[in-house]
Amino acid sequence: MEVPFVRVARDRGEATRRELADADLIDDGYEIDVEGQDLYIPVADPDAVPVEFEVVCRPGEERDAQTTPADLLGFDPSYERLGRAVLLDEDDPERARTVADAVLESDLPVDTVVNKASKIKGETRVRDWDVLAGADTEVVHREYGCEFALDLAAVYFSPRLATERHRVAETVAEGERAFDMFAGVGPFVIPFAKRGAECVGVDVNEDAIAYLRENARRNDVDARVTAVHGDVREVAPDYEGWADRVVMNLPHSADEFLESAATVASDDCLLHYYDIQHEDDPFGPGERAIRDAAEPAYDVSIETERIVRSYAPHELNVCLDVRLERA
């Protein structure tokens, strides 16, 4: 059976394996292989592998000792992994219970299984969960060398954006001043701070800000992180002209906060603007909104237009990396 692998030189194999493991991308169902001077590491989602790695397809040797939920169920269930938790999205409670039991009986390193019980709701973007196994909804997630504690029922967090967050973090330089307008538990702020940036993270969700502070301590970057609970439109004037980099990861409504982004932007600022738009024109609405808010005070130039992922039929989650230079 052809399996996707990351091919890497053997002398870089362990560092690459750790990076892929931190991003939860290694496919534990297959063995790591060696051929000549190359190491082949099996990956579960080739589309999520960072672009700097080479992905190839080749025959894979299955691990005999690894029992998966699919082995027990006779079908391949859909789920997400977050730390030692498995997240289900099953409409049928009986099917959810059956899948949860199979997850627990399998060899997956899992303590908690939850099933989505509502859509994302409210300005804090949280959802309800049915806890099928485990004591609660608190988990610890590891991503590209960072560790994040969070409560699924109290904060918003998407493991699917790990590769995108890593892409942005890789461009951060020591000494930068970074402002995350919707910081959550810190998936942008923490890696930025680990690269030496001074960071401010703002969120309306008080629980998220508490976890952001905890995660700053967990990752030994609390001296470089300021966590602010509040509406960023009220906080922005306190940081007027401060930020070299601004993150706006609030698809569907980020355009409502662009005036605040222009307020905190320094004379030369890079803006990461996330949006969800129809596939016919995924970048146009965002660019027009940014220009309306920033011009003529700033010269606006689009540095990158990137499709992050498919969001829904004919809808795309996109990112615009935009340079704002004071006119």
UniProtKB/TrEMBL annotation:
PROSITE patterns: SAM_MT_TRM5_TYW2. InterPro entries: MeTrfase_TRM5/TYW2, SAM-dependent_MTases_sf, TRM5-TYW2-like_MTfase, TRM5/TYW2-like_N, Trm5a/b_N. This is Class I SAM-dependent methyltransferase family protein. The lineage of its organism: Archaea, Methanobacteriati, Methanobacteriota, Stenosarchaea group, Halobacteria. Keywords: Cytoplasm, Methyltransferase, S-adenosyl-L-methionine, Transferase, tRNA processing. GO terms for molecular function: tRNA methyltransferase activity. It comes from the Archaea. GO terms for biological process: tRNA N1-guanine methylation. It comes from Natrarchaeobius chitinivorans. One of its GO terms (cellular component) is cytoplasm. Residues 79-326 form the SAM-dependent methyltransferase TRM5/TYW2-type domain. CDD domains: AdoMet_MTases.
